[in-house]
Amino acid sequence: MTDHVTLYGFWRSMAAYRVRVALHLKGVRVHEIAINLDAGEQFSPQFLAVNPEGALPALLESGQPALIQSMAILEYLNERYPDPPLLPKDLHARARVRSLAALIASDTHPLIVPRVRNYLTSNAGFDHAAWRSWATHWVTRGAAAMEKRLAEDPATGVFCHGDQLSFADLCLASLIIVARTIKFELKEIPTITRIVARCEQMEAFQRANPLQQPGAPA
């Protein structure tokens, strides 16, 4: 084990999940503070002083300002703690991994976060069924695009890129495992299913599982 950090997260947060996995992979001791998104704790003055956006995750180290945005945190952790590496050495390969990660973290996940749900249900006339339909559409669309890219690219291996775990796997697992946890059914994604199943065999992913975190339902 190495340094100790504080992570502000929530059991169901996809972004906090992928950072949590990275911390465990890197052997960084982490103390997690649960911010209940359903109760609106992310908008408390105390948390807004940490992240004015009112979003998770946030990573704190002694004497340093908070780091926010999960992909920026992953890049930081990978540079500060280079073993095991979560990006390939080859320039083109790194771009591919970042592109796969962005398909989840930038193009899919932001459409289903609580603040989007809350806006749609409060201001756009969405009831629960309409919200589920919205979220299902975007999760299914993102997963289908990811499946096609992975299945048709010979660079895909045991993991999203060859046989080395990378940012792409952390982002993919965050989508699939959290979607499963909140009962979104995804079909016809055999390549994704295989890769995520391999990830779930690893201790870091098991320790980061949403249902193992403080505040998760029994």
Along the chain, the helix and strand elements come as EHEHEEHHHHHHH
Q: What is the third-level CATH name, the topology of the largest domain?
A: Glutathione S-transferase Yfyf (Class Pi), Chain A, domain 2
The helix tally amounts to 9
The top-level CATH class of the largest domain is Mainly Alpha
Largest sheet: 4 strands, mixed
**Average pLDDT over all residues:** 95
How many runs of DSSP E, i.e. beta strands?
4
Strand content: 5-15%
CATH architecture of the largest domain: Up-down Bundle
- The total tally of domains equals 2
Features:
single chain; 218 residues; alpha+beta; Glutaredoxin; Glutathione S-transferase Yfyf (Class Pi), Chain A, domain 2; 2 domains; 9 helices; 4 strands; 8% strand
Question: What would you note in describing this structure?
Answer:
The chain has 218 residues and is of the alpha+beta class. The two termini are 29 Å apart. The chain folds into two domains: 7-84, Glutaredoxin, CATH 3.40.30.10; 91-206, Up-down Bundle (Glutathione S-transferase Yfyf (Class Pi), Chain A, domain 2). Strands 2-1-3-4 form a four-stranded mixed sheet, covered by helices on one side. The radius of gyration is 17 Å and the shape is globular. The model has no long low-confidence stretch (mean pLDDT 95). α1 (14-26) packs across α7 (167-181) and α4 packs parallel to α7 (167-181). The protein contains nine helices and four strands. Helices cover 50% and strands 8% of the residues.
